[in-house]
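[audit] Reproducing an earlier prediction to check determinism. Same input, same settings, fresh worker. If the tokens differ from the archived copy the diff job will pick it up downstream; this log only records the rerun itself.
[audit] input (399 residues):
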Amino acid sequence: MNIHEYQAKAVLKEFGAPVSRGVPIFKPEEAEKAANELGGPIWVVKSQIHAGGRGKGKFKEAAAGEKGGVRLAKSVDEVKTFAREMLGNTLVTLQTGPAGKQVNRLYIEEGSEIEKEFYLSILVDRATSRIAFVVSTEGGMDIEEVAHNTPEKIKTFSVDPATGVMPHHGLTVAKALGLSGAAAKQATGLVAQLYAAFVAKDMAMLEINPLIVTKGGDLRVLDAKVSFDSNALYRHPEIVALRDETEEDPKEIEASKYDLAYIALDGTIGCMVNGAGLAMASLDIIQLYGESPANFLDVGGSASEEKVTAAFKIITADPKVKGILVNIFGGIMKCDVIARGVIAAVQAVGLQVPLVVRLEGTNVEEGKTIIRESGLNVIPADDLDDAAQKIVKAVREAR
């Protein structure tokens, strides 16, 4: 689960991290009050969407101007103008894709006098099973670009969970960023604060880009992007309350209600599979035969008929889907349960596109009999390769 920048900064502030003062707004008429509350003389007006590259982004609507999704305002009137131009308009960045995201919230923040910009992030390193820090002197840039062009400017280290963060970790960050004096001392405190927040809130990723040194010599978190481990959200109702569903795909929201692992993709073949490994193999083989999957959907190893029905409805609700592949290898999951779920869903929503079903494993013959006797126009398949070829062929013939 992701949250907005202003929400991330509020979380980090709870742990003592240095953040600038700011006010979120949801309507253009709130801009003047926010600007006056902060006092100026410089304000930063920031679009709040779940995507990076906002400053370099472009709005689709001409009325939104040409200054991107993060703007420097030098008067209250400019704050008001930017708010009118940005709210309700669609911002396109490298991370949003061409469709962009509608800006429904802004963060009006006091300006900062920046001396230097750095990059700092914390994430779970699966290779070491530890929490890792990634720091670089190249703040304000895409870290992927830095890694590709100047990898030597990136420093990484992990924290032993037995000891937690120690003073030497802060010194490592200070040395990597070339900090000295007060800023170096602040780095030790900041590293401890960020690590504490990461662990306490079950974060999956915390990215600060940029982390700055002000002209006064102080460290400050100028931007923050945070995502949380969805499996741990039951422990954090205060974080769940920050969820902005307008930033998420409605199909993914619906899938989460049934505990379905669903991710929308850009292709035309909808997939319903049990098991993440089999699901990935199904996506790959569809790609191998020249088409693209419309989703990743793992119904799990013990799905009920209701869950299967919900999964099928989510797939058919996607207008991009021109064909559906159901690929089930029954272990704990029984093929007859899948069959009944598919039939219930088809009867409820109809079937307007080709459907290929491959069943194998527990109760496979019962499942095949149920589908065969249903009277539905279903294309049976013997194995994964056969299923992939049949759904690709059916989609192409239907065009």
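[audit] rerun output stored. Observation attached for the diff report: The CA atoms of residues 10 and 56 lie 25 Å apart.
[audit] end
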